[in-house]
Design goal:
single chain; alpha+beta; Hypothetical protein af1432; Beta Polymerase, domain 2; Ubiquitin-like (UB roll); about 10% strand; binds manganese (II) ion
């Protein structure tokens, strides 16, 4: 009876990693003994929480060290167990994961105390060393939100807000959309309960009203794909409550949200994605401006899919999301999908991809190199990485990620020191603009450079958002002064 928690976890682990059952049970018994006597606010034994976190991760097919670390994740914080002890009884990788998770919990962006700020910086930069620390922390936060009802209202709001500010962006940056949606909806439930229930109700009504029509479309598309001999899977999905809330805040009516309801179509290869798109556009009128090719142009968190919004037979807007099965795994789980796709090699592939493909992590490393002052580093990280981004196209049609409020000058320096120093002008969506022009999502930007240009002036410092641009401008001024 007492080991029911362990049994639940092992049942999941057995489905993909049976040979590690014993090692995982060992971590469980160690944690259960050390947490013995501690209770959660709901009256359960404390060990129920680390096990729940481990279960969330086992559903992502996490490796042995990650599951073990999840079981041990609160020991350093809540008992007298040390990092050294964990390293001795388990291994170095598990000890580092537990230590990383304990530290990340202590990050507080609003506390200006010097030691705290220095510590926050160390933690933020250490997460780039092993992304599994973030993933364990996200699972930990998800379970905290799932069991938030047992805390006092003030604490609920605090945790919910911190989740939206810090953990939702992290989930987005690693492309873990399923996790992100769950975190968002749970946080919203505690921050804006009235809006939450109102939208939930409206969504239920819309779903009910459109059920028959969506089912017919699903059958029609299935028929077309079968006729062409394209193997596929198809599903109906609804936007999450927080996503709807954000769309409504932009003055949309619920019926005008173009991706409120979507048909998700998964096929075997890229060629079939485009064939499927053709079949759908041939059958239903598309809303021209809503077509997105994220296969040719992946998002900065590696999300890939074709999106098109079409008119249903009863004149609703229905989005079709078309992608391969492999892309769908990445779309739901982001980097965490690599556990399933790459098995034993997952950890290295994750780190490698993180460094090469995800813009967030290179930005973080740049900020780290740029600032010697801890408080400045923290302020800038918060501003550039955690307050939402603007996505624009460069002249080649590639997507460039910039912080909100970024200008032409910011973009130029993001693309290279020379681009910034030789910047002479720019067009946005074919119109000439000033260098302090503030960029918006989806702007198409062409930067004009000129070898004869005077170059940055002190006024430019007032016209930029990013630390990178500021630093390059100062460097230029300094060099000019020396001449
Ligand atoms: Mn915890």
């Amino acid at each position: 009876m007492k080991e029911k928690f362990l049994e639940n976890l092992l049942a999941e682990v057995r489905t993909y990693n049976a040979e590690e059952e014993e090692a995982i049970a060992k971590a469980y018994y160690f944690a259960a003994e050390k947490h013995a006597g501690q209770k959660r606010k709901d009256g359960e034994d404390y060990i129920s929480h680390p096990v729940a976190v481990a279960v969330i991760l086992s559903e992502m097919r996490a490796d042995r060290d990650t599951i073990s670390a999840a079981l041990l994740h609160d020991l350093i914080e809540d008992t007298d167990v040390t990092k050294a002890e964990i390293e001795k009884d388990f291994n170095k990788s598990i000890a580092n994961l537990v230590d990383g998770v304990s530290k990340i919990s202590r990050v507080n962006f609003n506390n200006k105390n010097e030691a705290n700020v220095a510590n926050s910086r160390k933690i933020i930069t250490s997460i780039t060393e092993d992304v599994r620390i973030i993933i364990i922390k996200l699972a930990d936060r998800l379970h905290n939100l799932q069991t938030l009802e047992h805390l006092e209202p003030i604490k609920q709001k605090e945790i919910a807000l911190e989740s939206l500010e810090m953990y939702v962006p992290l989930a987005f940056y690693i492309g873990a959309y399923r996790l992100k949606s769950e975190l968002e909806d749970l946080a919203m439930l505690y921050l804006k309960p009235e809006d939450f229930f109102k939208i939930e109700k409206e969504l239920a009504i819309t779903k009910k009203n459109s059920k028959q029509c969506l089912t017919e479309m699903l059958e029609e598309i299935s028929f077309l794909l079968e006729k062409e001999g394209i193997p596929f899977e198809i599903k109906i999905r609804a936007k999450n409550i927080y996503g709807i809330y954000k769309s409504l805040a932009e003055n949309n009516k619920i019926t005008d949200i173009h991706d409120l309801l979507a048909l998700k179509i998964m096929v075997e290869d890229v060629k079939s994605c485009y064939l499927t798109l053709g079949l759908i556009h041939n059958q239903y009128y598309p809303l021209n401006e809503r077509f997105k090719d994220y296969i040719a142009l992946p998002k900065t968190n590696m999300y890939q899919s074709l999106h098109t919004t079409v008119f249903s037979p009863d004149e609703r807007l229905v989005q079709a999301q078309i992608r391969t099965l492999a892309m769908d795994k990445i779309a739901s789980f982001g980097l965490t999908a690599y556990w399933d796709i790459n098995k034993g090699e997952a950890k290295n592939v994750m780190q490698d991809d993180l460094a090469k493909k995800f813009q967030f992590f290179s930005s973080l490393n740049e900020l780290n190199m740029m600032f010697s002052d801890d408080q400045e580093f923290i302020n800038q990280t918060k501003k550039e990485l955690l307050t939402g981004n603007t996505y624009v196209y460069n002249a080649a049609g590639e997507i460039v990620e910039l912080p909100k409020g970024a200008t032409i000058i910011d973009m130029a320096y993001k693309l290279g020191t020379d681009v910034g120093n030789l910047l002479a002008g720019a067009t946005v969506n074919e119109d000439y603009v000033g260098l302090d022009h503030c960029l918006k999502n989806k702007d198409r930007v062409k930067l004009l450079t000129d070898e004869e240009v005077v170059g940055p002036t002190p006024e430019w410092l007032e016209k930029v958002q990013t630390a990178q641009a500021k630093q390059k401008i100062k460097e230029f001024m300094k060099k000019k002064g020396q001449r």
